[in-house]
Design a protein that fits this description.
about 100 residues; mainly alpha; Lipoprotein; signal
Length: about 100
């Protein structure tokens, strides 16, 4: 019984580590793209304040596509592929807020 409990705890711990919040994914991907940690944190915070979880996941997925682009043409295509008007507006507003507010 003790071994079973230890195994269950280990599996749950691994599952908790594997589940990263959309806000953290956004922040990490913004850093990967080239933003400073401070700006990435600001953007992630602003987006977290403005969007629900589904929209945050859309932004994180979108930023992953931008980050994976290997050429300027692919970057341009990735930038055009966000299909969520709320998320696109929030990205623009967060970018302005973080650029001028912090």
């Amino acid at each position: 019984m003790l071994k079973k409990s230890i195994l269950i705890c280990a599996v749950l711990s691994l599952a908790a580590c594997a589940t990263i919040s959309p806000r953290s994914r956004i922040e990490n991907r913004l850093v990967d793209i080239g933003l400073s940690e401070r700006k990435a944190e600001c953007m992630a915070h602003e987006l977290d304040e403005r969007l629900d979880r589904d929209d945050l996941n859309d932004v994180a997925d979108f930023l992953g596509d931008v980050n994976e682009a290997s050429s300027d043409g692919e970057n341009y295509d990735a930038l055009l592929n966000i299909d969520n008007a709320r998320a696109a507006a929030a990205i623009a507003a967060a970018g302005l807020s973080c650029a001028f507010g912090n």
